[in-house]
Amino acid sequence: MKISVIGTGYVGLVTGTCLAETGNEVLCIDIDKDKVKQMQEGIVPIYEPQLDVLFERNIKANRLWFSTSLEEGLNHGEIIFLALPTPEDEDGSADLSYVLGAAKEIGKLIKDYKVIVDKSTVPVGTSDKVKETIAKETNVAFDVVSNPEFLREGFAVEDFLKPERIVIGSSSERATQLMEKLYKPFVRSGNPIIIMDEKSAELTKYAANSFLATKITFMNEIANFCEKVGADVDMVRIGMGTDSRIGKRFLFPGIGYGGSCFPKDVKALHKSGKDHNYHFNILNSVIKVNDVQKKVLIPRIASYFNQNLKDKTFAVWGLAFKPETDDIREAPALYIIEELLKLGATINVFDPEALPNVKRKFGQQLNYASNMYEATKNADALIICTEWSIFRTPDFNKLKSNLNQPVIFDGRNLYDIKDVKAEGFYYNSIGRQAVG
After folding, report:
1. Do 115 and 8 share a domain, yes or no?
2. Helix (H, G, I), strand (E, B) or coil at 231
3. Angle at 144 between CA 142 and CA 147, to 5 degrees
4. Residue 159 contacts by C-beta under 8 Å, 6 or more apart in sequence?
5. Across the beta sheet with 64-67, what order do the strands follow?
6. CA angle 210, 6, 87 (to 5 degrees)
7. From CA 388, how far away is CA 392, in angstroms rounded?
């Protein structure tokens, strides 16, 4: 099949590349000329495990191309994916200007029947708005389908190629058949393609992300309470997770959720509720708790150093909002860094992938280390913000030698308390008693 993907951000590039991997002819469109040139030269503009291999393979096989021309994209594809940004607006709603702007141009350029697919995460009713926007510009037949993505950063290629489910929101039998044909190679193991109306499909994505964010936030509240009463959140987590109704996943406490999806989607659903005279009390609490949780380590650090951080240096391990990505959007590490800078601290940072993005944001305010141990040299404490695998089994002797004093503030509970105590460290983590 011939597919066009409008927008080559995280979702668009993964979508286009993975669709090409199953033999489709995919043209990806972006208005950023430099980015398109980069991709035409075989350079992947984002970090995502396995994406580079598929990207290179499908370019060589002449199944994946890139262009800045929307008209070229409309002429090429029988299915047109809109994978455009929907950033958070000032009032918390999703900004649909990119999506609706593209829809208007599609209306001007469309020449024959197309299926227009909303792949971006969009509020309920967006498919109707896209349909109305296109219809104002043309009399050519078309259909609009809602097809939300459920891609985890760090596992996006695997999630696309082996999806747990595919959700298609469509009231058109013609469009539905084309979408089922497109996705059939991805569900050979029997996972479902779920057909529903457009509004239900749009809400499904928001509901799923908001529920997961709520689960994380609830566990962070339990962790905070554990510290008050002397309980161990790891034991509580294990006890809860063995209940099949609850499950083991998303029960790990930490310094809050971040990224491009959870923060934005929770706020957008909360705002959408207000727009329809419905108040999501749970989501309101989730937003507030998560905002506080991102900075939960700051008062502990300040207390340990007697409220004086001006002459202190801190090593920060992990800057991306989660492992296996270079995405720093809403990353808790950034909030911690900003607070420490306000308090006059010097900060050495390291992350396996996110350093370039952080450098663009903070410039020369930070010291950028080439490896995890370099960041700890002459630092007064180590702060762990992202649970990259390479941080899980450090050389504690080297750490103790590099640090001015053996102090670790762990926002991701990477280590066993007894082990770190035996190594001679002061260790402060989430939902567990501080030791040392």
Report:
1. yes
2. coil
3. 145
4. 150, 151, 152
5. 64-67, 25-29, 2-6, 79-82, 114-118, 142-146, 166-169, 193-196
6. 35
7. 7
Residue 27 CA to residue 42 CA, distance in Å, equals 14
226 catalytically annotated: no
Q: Which member of 18, 28, 226, 261 is catalytic?
A: 261
Q: Looking at the structure, do residues 115 and 257 belong to the same domain, yes or no?
A: no
Same domain flag for 282 and 338: no
Residues 177 and 267 in one domain: no
pLDDT-derived band at 87 (thresholds 50, 70, 90) equals: confident
Q: Rounded to an integer, what distance in angstroms lies between the CA atom of residue 109 and that of residue 134?
A: 10
- Compute the chain's Rg from CA coordinates: 24
Q: Is the pLDDT of residue 91 over 90?
A: no
Strand (E) or helix (H) holding 199: helix 198-229
Q: How far apart are CA 94 and CA 205, in angstroms?
A: 13
Residue 435 falls inside a structural domain: no
**Which pLDDT value is given to residue 337?**
98
Q: What's the structural domain count of the chain? A: 3
> Mean pLDDT in the chain?
96
Classify residue 436: in a domain, yes or no: no
Q: Name the residue among 182, 37, 261 with its Cα closest to residue 8.
A: 37
